[in-house]
Amino acid sequence: MGAKSGDARMRKYIGNSKVFLLTSALGGIAVSPLHAQTTAAKEFHIPAQSLPAALTQFGRQAGLQVSIPASLVEGKTSHAVNGTMSPSQSLAQILSGTGLTYRVNANVVTLVPATANITLGPVRVGGQISKQDPTGPGVGYVATTTMASTKTDTPITEIPNSIYVVTKQIMQDQQPQNVQQALRYTPGVFAETFGTAGNGAAKGPSNGIMQRGFATTEFIDGLMTTSSSAGETAFVERIEAVNGPASVMYGQVTPGGMLSIDLKKPTDTPLHSASLGFGNWGRYEATFDISDKLTESGNVRYRIAAIGVTQGSQTNYIDYHRVGVLPSITWDIDRKTSLTLLGMYMYTPGDGISAEYPISGTLISNGQTRIPRSAFLGLPGWNTAGNKDAMFEYQFKHNFNKYINFSQVFRWENSQYNMKTSYLNTGTSTGQSNVTAWTPWLFNTNQTTSSLDTRLFGKFKTGPVSHTWVIGNDFRNFNYPQYFQYDLGSSNLINSYNPQEYYSNLSYCFSFSSKSCFTFGDRQALSYFQDGLYFQDQIKWKGLSILLGGRQDWVNYSRKSVINYNIYGTKMSTNNDAGSEPQSAFTWRAGLIYNFDFGLAPYFSYSTSFVPQAGSTNYLGQPFAPLTGKQFEAGLKYKFPHKDILLTASAFHIDEDHYLISDLTHSGFSADAGRVVSQGFEVSANANITRDLRLVASYSYTDIRFGKSNVTDQRYNPYTKSYYGNALSEEGMSVPQVPRNMFSIFADYTIPQNVAKGFGLNWGLRYVGATYVDNVESFKTPSYVLFDLGAHYDFGAVSSSLRGLKAQIAVSNLTNKYYLTACSTAVCYLGQGRRVYGNLTYNW
Predict the structure, then answer these.
(1) Range of 105's domain?
(2) 757 in any annotated domain
(3) Name one GO molecular function term (predicted).
(4) Are the C-beta atoms of 58 and 65 separated by less than 8 Å?
């Protein structure tokens, strides 16, 4: 076979000869498949090393038999490969910068010098192109398939609504420390509304995150969650933002959209990774992520991800500490049946969340410099906050035949949260512009959720038309006992510029028997049960895909409250049982999308939403009507043929009735603002432009206004701290704290090895537009622009003895810009200053 080429005596044979045959390749490296299914996406974990060693590991992990002419690969080194991808994509990353490329001819992959001017493309076997795992990490900055929108394995270009994926590679390059930070470059998503006051790593990502102007809802592995564990990126494989209503498949979701997060699970190929991290504010972190088989055949596999971290913050007396572990095991019972079990425990004794700041000294000038970010405006002896989170989940799948499949996911989770802190008492005037009053309070809860999603799905054909159908049922039982207490008798004054001046005089009193206390406490028990039945049909004829679906929801909830007062030694108590009649709703959606052969896919869709406002009442104790919404969306998706470049553009119009806003007349309560209208457009790009250059970019325009409202309000002057003029109707006014314009771009470039072996750089820019502070557009929080910068170095590129070792540094807010994420008429939320984070990672 090799005599004519003269390379037979130099070849090494690698891989599984039971699956693949060796063929000649005219002086190249040949891979000859026997079975089409072997081109499915796989987990690849190959460290940077000598090229022959990397190709050896590639052959083993891909299940390929490979022939290597030593003269072609001698002295060359490879790039590291980590993630779920096809063998051809893995091979392309390995060869990046080696001067070699590959070509495909008659189902045979051949390595040749790059000077041969070969057009690259995916490996085809039997006319099939390998697909990505729809819940996996993606390839580079691009994910092409998803489960999030339809609960079926579907290409993104066949779904008629907006879906944006934050891949594992994006998170690795940007080094976000929570899910809010991971969403900074996602179209239509304003992830950090409350800045460092809502951006603590211990909080779940839905805290302060807005999609198309509406609060988001978070799902893990397809089930709604309220656990703070969802914010831990060390446990996350990928994040998806489904913009627009998703109630048909998920139930109670606002029309702005939902977040879908996939946790790490056992991989098909071994994975061994550990890292040590460091950063400013005294950050130290250690993680490990290990996956391997437990049986010789590999039908039982495990994975363990863990993290330990401690750090301070930009604000004095605010710290963040966490330890957590996520073990999982997968058992392929037979070729049609699999079971995955996951568990999680996380202890976070300090959540790293700071408080709000007064508007005077931040947004508006009080004759002095701005209040420093380091100023702790609170009670140093009364500022603890932390979580304990536990979770168990199972995922079961069984394929009866090619027409019917069964899937079930169950999760139980418990989250305990305890907090002692203080808040800015805007109703107390001190007579000094730089002195404010702070009221101590405490809060604790122990919430438990049980969720189950069961569905049958499959495929069939009616003549030339193919159908992918789903019928399912999900339920969620949520118990949320909580207790909070306010010390209304202590008026603690704090100087914003010299808080230490008042620290020694601060006090708090929470006794219901002491005559010196004036305290108020409320013990509540909220229980919530939701059940939903849904169906969906994805109809495909040639390039046309039609999506039809509907859902019926039933919701029951109850809320009991026991309120205790102590007015200077006189204890009083009231009981309040605020129940509600059961609520139900039918939601539906329809859409179509057409895929042209050259990659363009125009689409149009209509969808509705339903969210019961369980437990929310107005100041009279009356429950609010459920939120109901509808959306029209039209757009274009363009996938470059044979390239990992995905462009999207969409325009949307959303109406939602019974939108809640803060009741400015009755503090602490909400008011029904009537109808709001959100309309705008989004454009985005996710691209692996070359093997060494990756990019994400987006622009979002969101105009959300009160469309129909009977509510009126006066405008506010923050300098005089007074309202002025006649009361104005809120109808037609902008909804506060939602930026109209957002733009972002982030790119990572690995420098060619003949210039700087193993070295790469990345750079990002984020623009967030101005937001209004109240419901009648009194004044604005200004826009801001932030820059991010990073670098990475692969030691294995220069020394085979260091293969698998990589160093990385990421800097967010490079210029240390002082900015405000949002303000109300009284308080503002500070953004994060310059954050420097670096780590050393070793893969073996």
Answers:
(1) 42-113
(2) yes
(3) siderophore uptake transmembrane transporter activity
(4) no
